[in-house]
Amino acid sequence: MKLQQLVYQSKSTIPFSAEQLETLLRPWRMHNHAQRISGLLLYGDDDIIQVIEGPVENVHALYQTIAADARHYDVITLADGPIPERAFAEWSMGFSALDESRREQLAGYVGPNLAGPGTPVHPGQWPELTALLREFAAHQLS
User: Fold this and answer.
1) Would you list the domain boundaries of the chain?
2) More confident of the two residues 73 and 47
3) Which top CATH class is 3-140?
4) For the chain, how far is it from start to end, CA to CA, in angstroms?
5) How would you write 56-105 as a 3-class SS string?
6) Residue 46 CB: number of other CB atoms within 10 A?
C-alpha cells in the first residue's frame, strides 16, 4: 500500500475548548481508524495544524471533507506527497493543545512566507517539522 502524508494549517471560525475538541475527536478517530488514516491534530488560539497519513485516496478524500468544513477557514496545504512510512502510526488522530511558546516554535515552519495556496511541498522536504511535531506528540498527546 502506498502511503501519503498531507499537512495543512487553518484558522477555526470559533474558539474550541479542549473538552469540545475531545468530544469531536471521538467520531473522527473512529472514522480515521476505519479508513486506515493516522495523524496528529494541533490546536491553539484558533490555529489548527493537522497531519494526515494513510492510503492516498483515503487521505485526499478526508482532506476534501476537511477543506469544506465550515468550522475553519484559510485552509492551506503545507505538504502533500508520498512517504515511505507513517510518522504517527500509533494514532488515528493524536491531539495536542498548543500553548503560546509551542505556537511560536511552529511559526517559523508554517508561516505565510514558507507556503501558500497551490504551493505544497513534499513532506520529506521538512524533516525538522516532522521531528518537531513528533516531539509535541510525545510530550503532550491526550
Assistant:
1) 3-140
2) 73
3) alpha beta
4) 29
5) HHHHHHHHHHHHHCCCEEEEEEEEEEEECCCCCCCCCCEEEECCHHHHHH
6) 13
